[in-house]
Amino acid sequence: MADRDTAEGVLGLVQAFVNTVDLQDGPEELTDPNTLKAWLVAHDLIDAGAAVDESDLKHARALREAIRGVIGANTGGTVYPVDVATLNEAASASRLRARFGQDGKARLEPDADGAVGAMGRLVAAVFAGMAEPDWTRLKLCGSSTCRWAFYDRSRNHSSRWCTMASCGNREKARRFRQHTRHRA
Ligand SMILES: [Zn+2]
Hints:
mainly alpha; 184 residues
């Protein structure tokens, strides 16, 4: 996975969250409330003393897949109403509001604390990320079994696979097999 490119800043945070699971080969990083909390603490999204339970884990995984869904729109994917609803619910539950920092710049911050607030911070990262010109470089791998979030650094934004070595070649081989079967 070393050659899978990573974004920086809010885009990097969004990408890291979506990639807490490798849908194709595993592992799942968010296996229980403790691993979720450790991830949120490591990314400065929650206080170390906050409680995280099973329902928070369920919400976090749902939010993760909803974010994956909207990133998919950058590669021509359909945005499903369930994903939109999940994002809106996380935004409402965390009570996101505009807040001006000491630097004079506005950002969205949650009024809620704990895991609900942390989910709000992730939604705020998506919000801020979408305002960046490089948002469309954040893509999902074109392999339907992979759907890894990768950052397309190519000059003409043309990358389709998380890595050509794994998914690109596997997909080509699959098409080649279909092609030869149809001709037989
Ligand atoms: Zn892939």
